């Protein structure tokens, strides 16, 4: 595929999954409108691209940090975002296809900090880093408000809920089964105020699937953003990273030797855009935990 020119928008699908969850088909994932050369574009022009396409959009710029290879800016229809996991994965994959990234690793400058990236040649995938999770459990009044917005009824306030973040704060809502997750009918008119009241940028209800696939745990999730300009997100990398960090910290992902295992997060199924986000533990050179890696399949839209 030819390299797009300055200001030109190309759309890619990121974290592509299938309805059977094997990640090998098409029609799923989260679309990313991408401008591979955004030099000269104003913030208003970038936001207009996101508004015109109705999705999180990514813009590649020269790095201002001498230690980085490129800088990324991210916009949704309503505002700029500090970080977008699926857009970062997708952008680096596209740059690889165009021959604009050929090294094994890269450092990406974002408003939320520097993101480390590595190319997985065997799987032909990009992995990007996220830091250790920050988390706090919601108090009872907060849980009642979230349960009301999600339509869970009074008993929903008894579910475990946690504000967790590797960049933006997402509210993790632990549901007992996948059927309840897909049956949710949120009050979208009340979403922004509820998220603002609890200090969150979106609600992320999830359910752990029984059994495991390919040696890793599986969770199903949905993401209802606070004020992005659309009601639901087909794949949310930073929310999946926050979920992995929360589950790993609680011991729910303990492997055979006690270390946290990988997690596959399936999202977008209720939207007809099945997605699969892969999250794996990340270690320092001394073997200490350093957050996680995010990856998934990418395809041209």
Summary keywords:
301 residues; alpha+beta; Diaminopimelate Epimerase, Chain A, domain 1; 2 domains; 6 helices; 18 strands; 21% helix
Write the layout of secondary structure elements.
Layout: E1 9-14, E2 30-35, H1 43-53, E3 57-61, E4 70-75, E5 80-81, H2 85-97, E6 105-110, E7 113-120, E8 125-130, E9 134-137, H3 140-150, E10 161-165, E11 169-174, H4 178-183, H5 191-198, E12 202-208, E13 217-221, E14 224-225, H6 237-249, E15 263-267, E16 275-283, E17 289-295, E18 298-300
Parallel strand pairs: 2-3, 4-6, 11-12, 13-15
Antiparallel strand pairs: 1-2, 1-18, 3-4, 4-5, 6-7, 7-8, 8-17, 9-10, 10-11, 12-13, 12-14, 15-16, 16-17
Helix pairs in contact: 3-5
If you had to describe this structure to a student in words, what would you say it looks like?
The protein has 301 residues and is α+β, with helices and mostly antiparallel strands. The protein folds into two domains: 9-130, Roll (Diaminopimelate Epimerase, Chain A, domain 1), CATH 3.10.310; 134-284, Diaminopimelate Epimerase, Chain A, domain 1. Helix content is 21%, strand content 33%. It contains six helices and 18 strands. It has an 18-stranded mixed β-sheet that branches. Helix 3 (140-150) runs antiparallel to helix 5. The longest helix is centred in the N-terminal third of the chain and has 13 residues, at 85-97. It starts with 8 loop residues before the first strand and ends with a strand.
CATH superfamily of the largest domain: Diaminopimelate Epimerase, Chain A, domain 1
At CATH level 2, the architecture of the largest domain is Roll
Alpha-beta classification:
alpha+beta
Query: What does the main sheet amount to?
Result: 18 strands, mixed
- Mean pLDDT across the residues is 94
Radius of gyration: 18 Å
Q: Could you give the order of the helices and strands?
A: EEHEEEHEEEEHEEHHEEEHEEEE
């Amino acid at each position: 595929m030819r390299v797009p020119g300055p200001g030109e928008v190309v759309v890619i699908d990121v974290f592509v999954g299938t309805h059977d969850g094997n990640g090998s088909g098409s029609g799923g994932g989260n679309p990313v409108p991408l401008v591979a050369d955004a030099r000269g574009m104003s913030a208003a022009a970038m936001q207009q691209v996101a508004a015109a396409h109705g999705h999180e959009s990514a813009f590649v710029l020269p790095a201002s940090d001498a230690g980085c290879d490129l800088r990324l800016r991210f916009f949704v229809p309503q505002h700029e975002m500090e970080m977008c996991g699926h857009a970062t994965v997708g952008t680096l994959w596209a740059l690889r296809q165009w021959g604009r990234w050929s090294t094994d690793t890269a450092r990406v400058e974002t408003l939320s900090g520097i993101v480390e990236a590595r190319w997985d040649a065997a799987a032909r995938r990009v992995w990007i880093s996220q830091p250790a999770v920050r988390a706090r459990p919601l108090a009872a009044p907060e849980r009642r408000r979230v349960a009301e917005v999600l339509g869970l009824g009074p008993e929903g306030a008894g579910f475990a809920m946690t504000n967790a973040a590797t960049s933006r704060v997402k509210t993790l809502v632990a549901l007992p089964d996948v059927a309840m997750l897909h049956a949710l009918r949120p009050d979208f008119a009340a979403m922004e105020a509820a998220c603002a009241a609890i200090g969150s940028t979106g609600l992320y209800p999830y359910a752990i699937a029984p059994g495991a696939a390919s040696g890793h745990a599986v969770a199903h999730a949905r993401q209802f953003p606070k004020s992005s300009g659309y009601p639901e997100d087909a794949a949310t990398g930073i929310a999946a990273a926050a979920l992995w960090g929360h589950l790993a910290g609680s011991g729910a992902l303990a492997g055979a030797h006690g270390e946290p295992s990988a997690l596959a997060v399936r999202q977008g199924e209720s939207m007809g855009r099945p997605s699969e986000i892969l999250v794996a533990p990340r270690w320092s050179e001394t073997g200490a935990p350093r957050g996680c890696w995010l990856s998934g399949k990418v395809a041209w839209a």
